[in-house]
Amino acid sequence: MKRNKILILFASLIVAVALFSACTEDTADVRLEPTLSTANTLNVTSDSATVVGFVVAEGDGFTERGVCYSTTEGPTVDGNKTIYSENTPDATFYVTLSGLDYATKYYARAYATGEAGTVYGEEVTFTTLPVVPFLTTAEISEITGNSAMGGGAVTGNGGADVTAYGICFGTSENPTTADATTNDGEGTGAFESMLSELQGNTTYYVRAYATNSAGTGYGPQVSFTTLVDLPKVTTTAVSGITKTSAVTGGAVTNNGGADITQYGIVWGLNSEPTITDNVIEATMEMDSFVVDLTELEKYTTYYVRAFATNSAGTGYGENIEFTTLADILTWYIPGDYVEASYPGSGLSNWSPENSPYVMSTIDNGTSLEGYVYMANADNQWKFATQPNWDGPNYGDGGDGVLDANADNIHSPAGYYKLNADATAGTFTAVATEWGVIGSGSPNGWDDETALAYSPEDTEWQGVMHLTAEEIKFRANHSWDYNYGSDAADGTLQAGGQNIPVDVESDYAIVLDLSTPNEYTYSLNRWGLIGDATPGGWDNDTNMTWDADNGVFTATLDLVAGTFKFRANDGWDVNYGGDINALSAGGDNIAVAEDGNYTITFDPWGLTATVTKN
């Protein structure tokens, strides 16, 4: 009978252990002793843990029960122990061990002591959690108006790797990492840290900090006060630039901790001017000020900075460079020809502000020049000196004289080179026909090969075979009208150097005279490149000009892949994308299958065809 009761009690205890273990974390999977079991550890912190024990059979009764623990295996009651002091009829008892070391592995056993001696449950292990790092904060040194040297030391990692340390600082006590911080490394040991961008004459509070998996620890707080600093100033962008004046200003964003005694603008011909250069003092409004710069030289580069002075010295804002306008004139060419001559441009008849124009240059501020196309059989027009009709406006006074009281100027259809002299009060209008001349051109140096004018593109265009020699652009079979390129870089100068042709080929040629005094050209020979072509992505397959159809063409074997149209064996000018509307730098064009193909390219309409033969 007694044996059956013990078996029933033992079975009940096994059920209780299973139910308890299912409801707790970190359950120790242990085998029960006949009289006592250590079942689990709960609520492990950095300095405590709760150990659960079971009394299976008390026999004649236990006089003491609890948990013994150690940092080595096999703890006994002769070492550290915590006695269970509560009086409960339950077989389960909970004992909280306190005063433990952080980040330390412990061994624990439930025990019970009776007349027969002490029995122990199974041994369980647990490791206490780490704590935040331990630090000291260094005294602050090297204090200036906007910086100081601080630091500290991570004297203990708290049982876990320190992933970041530095100092945190602010103008309120007990700063945290939510305030301004430095990040000076990881691990332990001493460190130095520079505090920068501080405000002058201001008290700051500083603490060293270090972070590990347990959180962030802080050192003791120290404080210091910065010296008076130079004022902080910003310079306003320069605006309202004319030939002889401009508008700028600034703002004092911080007085450096002392009264401002002077502020304004410094300016001069050299970068980063100071108060030893030109100074304009200002009246401050809402911490900002505006200054007019006057009596400046035309077309001259100046430098300007805002400044402010206090007892510590003078602080400066950003150094801003600007250039006064050149003494350049712009005259407009309104007339009844504009809409017909410039289709799709948005320009309109008899509207000075919506008309072509002529301009003077920096070197010659009263001599104006430009090219204007007039498409009508008879074109009427005038010179307007402003982008409106406020005048003066000039007509033809006879013999090329500008006359404010004269009628409209009449010109037949043509592409005109217009010149006007504002000082002499004269003008010329010469119809021009442009072409290419030179040893590299079809007619050599004997005569120019004609280009054609495109009103839609406002440029002269043509395709011709050029040899590896030299060319220039010339009009009207006269050297009075010719352009070369001193740098061979796409820009043109009147009477400039011959333009070299590097490779003999068919070239698409563009001469653009539409912007006064900024004339340009391009010489483009075209080819195919891509993994579908014989040269792959390394070498172009050249195309030739088909004059009958007005396209570049090439017949060649292609493999399935992609290709693009490229000019001059370089990537500066290339086209891809939709072959019915090619775009600069567009996507690669696909070739679906191997075969022999004829490919065409229109460099003006930017269309192509891909035909399998």
Write up what this structure looks like:
By secondary structure, the protein is mainly beta. It folds into 6 domains: 2-127, Immunoglobulins (Immunoglobulin-like, Sandwich), CATH 2.60.40; 134-225, Sandwich (Immunoglobulin-like), CATH 2.60.40; 233-321, Sandwich (Immunoglobulin-like); 330-431, Immunoglobulin-like; 434-524, Immunoglobulin-like (Sandwich), CATH 2.60.40; 526-612, Sandwich (Immunoglobulin-like), CATH 2.60.40.3620. It has 2 helices and 51 strands. The strands form 13 sheets. Strands 32, 33, 36, 37, 38 and 39 form a 6-stranded antiparallel beta sheet that branches. Strands 42, 43, 46, 47, 48 and 49 form a 6-stranded antiparallel beta sheet that branches. Strands 10, 11, 13, 14 and 15 form a 5-stranded antiparallel beta sheet that branches. A hairpin with a 6-residue loop joins β46 and β47. It is elongated. Residues 1-34 have low confidence and may be disordered.
- The H-level CATH homologous superfamily of the largest domain, spelled out, is Immunoglobulins
Counted up, domains total 6
What fraction of residues sit in β-strands? over 45%
Q: So, CATH architecture of the largest domain?
A: Sandwich
N- and C-termini, Cα separation? 107 Å
Task: Let me know the average pLDDT.
Answer: 92
Q: Describe the main β-sheet briefly.
A: 6 strands, antiparallel
Give unreliable regions as ranges. Answer: 1-34
What structural class is derived from the secondary structure elements?
A: mainly beta
Tell me the Rg in angstroms.
46 Å
Q: Could you tell me the number of beta strands? A: 51
Helix content: under 10%
Number of helices: 2
Domain Fibronectin type-III: 231-327
Keywords: Signal
Protein name: Fibronectin type-III domain-containing protein
Organism: Draconibacterium orientale
